[in-house]
């Protein structure tokens, strides 16, 4: 009896030991197989806004750039298992970053019925597809500023874990907005409105402080607020200031205290200015500005995220489709055309600009069109590329790992056949995408 027990125990101990050794050997073989990739870059733009280099070799190990060498170095000279990626006739730069998207859905005539017919899981599947389109378009990082919190946080985390392919996501979840304002639900029957009102809708400074903390507790990386009315809310509430000064200040203080930046949707000048005075980190759209607006931008160091593509898209939709209500159409035509004029003024005055499309208003995967519109409005091509890399990385506080190509940076790398510094339309045709060392498109 004793002998049997001892034998059984010994077998168990041996099995455990074998299992441990097997795990250890697997781990060590993974380490030995640290993946090295070597990119031959015909034209390399290491830092947008600065010069290009020709014929460079990028060495990538385990998803990070480890070296950048002059000339085309033979991969075998770096590591005998190194894999060569030949971009010797391409323009190579850091992955693009879109600071304003809504991965959950796309604007269209069926929005209302879809939102009632689709389950949360259906909507999440749609978001996964939109995320993939965005990544394939060369956008390796996005900031999602408004979605159902649980869905977008699940998508963000699923992508980070490698379960599905998509851009790195910095997400706000549902926006902190006031009752009846832009960001609150509208256009549905009262019982459905009540059911769908988010816990981040608030009134008064104390309640808005609660809403901000609530958003952070459930996973917000950034706080999205709507300090003015919006084009797409189906209410005759205009595009003027909707969050009061004390509400704005309270949200910014609560967010900053918990280490989160604040992005404010804002159209009318008084709303933009109030948000800037309250200390927000970026103004989204910024359609109307007055003289004080530029001064406040420069004083606060906040970024403007222009979303010209959204302005363009809603103007086209208002003119050529009939699913928008009259209230929306009127706002769309007015705001859409004025947005570009304000962008021109802000750019000339030296306001910091970060690239953002508001995709979800436009089609996901068309994110490159924003750059074309920015260039058409007078922005230098090199500044367009900078706004989508260096500036965007700074806005989300990730300059140490993203936005440029240098040793130590995450290997988010894209390539074009054509040179976007010469023709910005190259942004519409990204030929190669690598995210964190994984080749997504080649
Ligand atoms: Zn938006």
Secondary structure layout plus pairing:
Layout: H1 2-32, E1 36-45, E2 53-61, E3 64-70, H2 75-78, E4 83-94, E5 96-101, H3 111-117, H4 120-136, E6 139-144, H5 149-160, E7 168-171, E8 177-178, H6 190-196, E9 201-202, H7 205-217, E10 222-226, H8 245-257, E11 261-266, H9 269-278, E12 282-285, H10 291-300, E13 303-305, H11 308-320, H12 326-349, H13 369-376, H14 381-387, H15 390-395, E14 413-416, E15 432-435, E16 438-441
Parallel strand pairs: 1-4, 5-6, 6-7, 8-9, 10-11, 11-12, 12-13
Antiparallel strand pairs: 1-2, 2-3, 4-14, 14-15, 15-16
Helix pairs in contact: 7-8, 8-9, 9-10, 11-12
Account of the protein in words:
With 442 residues, this protein is an alpha/beta fold. The protein folds into 3 domains: 1-30; 36-94 and 407-441, Urease, subunit C, domain 1 (Roll); 96-395, Alpha-Beta Barrel (TIM Barrel), CATH 3.20.20.140. 41% of the residues lie in helices and 20% in strands. It has helices at residues 2-32, 75-78, 111-117, 120-136, 149-160, 190-196, 205-217, 245-257, 269-278, 291-300, 308-320, 326-349, 369-376, 381-387, 390-395, and strands spanning 36-45, 53-61, 64-70, 83-94, 96-101, 139-144, 168-171, 177-178, 201-202, 222-226, 261-266, 282-285, 303-305, 413-416, 432-435, 438-441. It has a 7-stranded mixed sheet with strand order 3-2-1-4-14-15-16, with no helix packed on it. The longest helix has 31 residues, at 2-32. The N and C termini lie far apart (65 Å).
């Amino acid at each position: 009896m004793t002998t049997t027990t001892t034998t059984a125990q010994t077998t168990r101990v041996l099995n455990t030991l074998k299992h441990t050794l097997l795990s250890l050997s697997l781990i060590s073989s993974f380490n030995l197989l640290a993946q090295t990739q070597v990119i031959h870059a015909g034209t390399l733009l290491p830092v947008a806004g600065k010069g290009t280099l020709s014929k460079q070799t990028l060495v990538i190990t385990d998803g990070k750039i480890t070296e950048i060498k002059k000339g085309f170095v033979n991969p075998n000279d770096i590591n005998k298992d190194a894999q060569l990626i030949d971009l010797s006739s391409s323009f190579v730069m850091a992955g693009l970053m879109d600071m304003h998207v809504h991965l959950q859905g796309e604007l269209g005539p069926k929005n209302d019925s879809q939102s009632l017919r689709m389950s949360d899981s259906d909507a999440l599947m749609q978001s996964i597809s939109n995320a993939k389109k965005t990544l394939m378009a060369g956008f390796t990082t996005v900031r999602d500023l408004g979605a159902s919190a649980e869905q977008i946080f699940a998508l963000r985390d699923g992508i980070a874990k490698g379960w599905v392919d998509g851009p790195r996501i910095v997400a706000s979840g549902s926006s902190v907005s006031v009752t009846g304002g832009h960001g609150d639900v509208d256009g549905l029957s009262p019982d459905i409105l009540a059911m769908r009102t988010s816990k981040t809708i608030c009134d008064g400074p104390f309640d808005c402080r609660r809403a901000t903390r609530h958003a952070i507790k459930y996973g917000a990386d950034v706080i999205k607020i709507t300090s003015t009315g919006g084009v797409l809310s189906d209410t005759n509430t205009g595009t003027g200031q909707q969050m009061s000064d004390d509400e704005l200040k309270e949200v910014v203080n609560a967010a900053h205290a918990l280490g989160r930046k604040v992005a404010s949707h804002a159209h009318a000048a008084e709303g933009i200015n109030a948000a800037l005075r309250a200390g927000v980190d970026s103004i989204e759209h910024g359609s109307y500005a007055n003289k004080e607006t530029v001064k406040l931008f420069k004083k606060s160091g906040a970024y403007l995220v222009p979303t010209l593509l959204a302005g363009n898209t809603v103007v086209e939709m208002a003119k050529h489709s009939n699913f928008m209500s009259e209230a929306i159409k009127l706002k769309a035509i007015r705001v859409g055309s004025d947005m570009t004029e304000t962008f021109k003024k802000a750019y000339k005055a030296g306001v910091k600009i970060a690239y953002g499309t508001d995709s979800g208003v436009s089609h996901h995967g068309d994110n490159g069109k924003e750059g074309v519109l920015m260039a058409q409005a007078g922005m230098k091509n090199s500044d367009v590329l900078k706004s989508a890399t260096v500036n965007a990385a700074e806005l989300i506080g990730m300059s140490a790992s993203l936005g440029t190509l240098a040793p130590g940076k995450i290997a988010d790398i894209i390539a074009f056949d054509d040179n976007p510094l010469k023709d910005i339309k190259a942004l519409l045709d990204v030929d190669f995408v690598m995210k964190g060392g994984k080749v997504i498109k080649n």
